[in-house]
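A quick aside before the break. I want you to see a complete sequence-to-structure record at least once, exactly as it would be stored in a machine-readable document. Don't worry about memorizing anything.
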Amino acid sequence: MRTDVEIVARRGPGGRTVLPVLRATGQLAVRRTGATTVHLVATAFGPLGGDDATIRIVVEEGATLGVLSVAAAIALPARGATTPSVQRIEADVEGSLDLRLEPTVVAAGAHHRAELVAGLGPHGQLTVTDQVLLGRAGEEPGRWTGTTRIERGGRPLLHTTVGLGTGEPAWLPPVAPRAYVSTVHIAETVHIAEEEVGVATGQDAVRLPLPGGWVTTAWGAELHRVVRAAAALAPAAPVRVPA
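That is the input. The structure line, written in tokens, reads:
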């Protein structure tokens, strides 16, 4: 099944955010749930192998948008097919975007590919979190491949691919985590104090600095523990200093 979602956030009268475009077809619907918040709502079970979803998000200068989902997505294999399911997010951010979807659970036999490509303007701000769990209770893990590319003015700030599950080169027991969380935060084009974004580590967790922000990554056997480990490394409040 083909799914397309389009969301545009714009600064309106008085500085409030308006949403002139909210469109969705296929397996997802989009609903405005707050002054600056929308939720993605699944209208069909899945995704199944072979399903392809594209989510396009535009946040214009001066606008603020939070994109969430109602429930976890469960990626399932398609009967008689080996093609992966794909979710592709394309974001153009001149304002502020907070993208925090519920976890993706990849069932046994399924392969799900998640792709995020984000282009930031000079004042663009982005926070995005991935949460992944391989396998439901009592079953073998599925396979997940996640690629994130974030640019500002055509300059890459982060470009990474993570592969989890059977068939991925780096997923070899005993180093074979079933749960994975990553959060990327990019602020405006002002410098952030080095002490706020230095390297930090925890148990199976790490925070690394990025130009104007940071990325935290954590992995392990249980998703709730991994979420806590990643959150513990996130700076409480980035400190901005003059350029």
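Two observations worth writing down. The first strand starts at residue 2 and ends at 11. Confidence is low (pLDDT under 50) at residues 191-195, 237-243. We'll return to this after the break.
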